Amino acid sequence: MAEVKLVREGKTEFFVPSSSELRKKGPGKKDKFGFYNPAMAESRDISVAVVQAMLNESTRELRVLDGLSSVGARGLRIANEVRGEFKVILNDWDERAIEIARKSIEHNDLRNVETRCENLNVLLCKEKFNYIDIDPFGSPVPYVSMAVRSILPGGILAFTATDTATLCGVYRKTCLRRYNAESLRTWAMHEIGLRILIGYIIKEGARFERALYPILSYSRNYYMRVYFRVKNGARRADKLLENISITKALDFNFKPREVGPLWLGELHDRDFLLSVKRAAKEVELSNRKEVGKLLDRCLEETGMPPFFYDIDALSSYFRKSPPKISRMMRLLEKEGFRVSRTHFRDTSFKTDAPLDEVMKAFRDLTI
């Protein structure tokens, strides 16, 4: 076995390649064998809380798949930290990564974990699961089609996308080729990209008469993460497709530009968010404060329209110093509009106010 070192995340210790960099930021780098990115600890925290919430509402044993597990950080944490009746399957095509994962299983004396060393799509053809987590190095597109067929009705599908430059408008041709959608580089590019990703996955599910409901979706600088509740039925799938279309978003000059097709419905399910918040209190998290802030912001976003405005973008456009975001929000609320913060950027807000009213409010605050 290759040289390894022991790290701790949440309340779980596991082995990673000794050459792994333990940086807390950035997308991480592939190693010759195995892969571990400590900057994704927050993402794994949320996975632990999501599976705990799922088990809290279940009366049967669940099958959990960490489909591209590498050394197993996500699946090992779920197996060790979540309470309930379930089995975790760690799968990776890299035999050396699975060897390291097995060493961690033994170290933690875990009896609810199995390992596989297979092509993920082949495994998804052969077995069914209640929860499937796919966290690739790049786009999840190669795995979506088989994943939506392998998930059991009522189960949860989770995908990570790290091809954010493509989804956020840097590589527009790649986005058209990969997601069949037009992206846009602007202040709201992460929400546009996230909605393109959601729309693509929902359409893939609909091909197989499976309805994929977004229950938690969020974006970080270098990755996007989406969770879906899956139900059977052509009519349900058709209903979801009604919320996917081409729309317009504002560019940096506040001119409308066509984007999509993309998802225009809710990014989150409020009841599910509340259940995840409750579950997060039951488990040990590496980034409790950050996770709590993210879930609270997601809750604020529910019921709000797509896209958002950004104080810094407005300031740059008008060439004025930016007012406090709280003042801007209060002024719009006073005018009778709904306003909320958003998880996408600390300098941004969502509102149902039209553009001219937002600009008027900004000018009134910067006279």
Outline the low-pLDDT stretches: none
**Tally of DSSP helical segments:** 14
Report the mean per-residue pLDDT as an integer: 95
Order of helices and strands: EEHEHEHEHEHEHHHEEHEEHHEHHEEH
> What's the number of structural domains?
2
Strand content: 15-25%
Number of strands: 14
Q: How is this structure best described in words?
A:
This protein has 367 residues and is α/β, with parallel strands linked by helices. It folds into two domains: 298 residues, 3-Layer(aba) Sandwich (Rossmann fold), CATH 3.40.50; 57 residues, Phenylalanyl-tRNA Synthetase, Chain B, domain 1 (2-Layer Sandwich). Helices cover 41% and strands 24% of the residues. It contains 14 helices and 14 strands. Strands 5-4-3-6-7-9-8 form a seven-stranded mixed sheet, sandwiched between helices. The chain has a three-stranded antiparallel sheet with strand order 12-14-13, sandwiched between helices. Strand 8 and strand 9 form a beta hairpin. The model has no long low-confidence stretch (mean pLDDT 95).
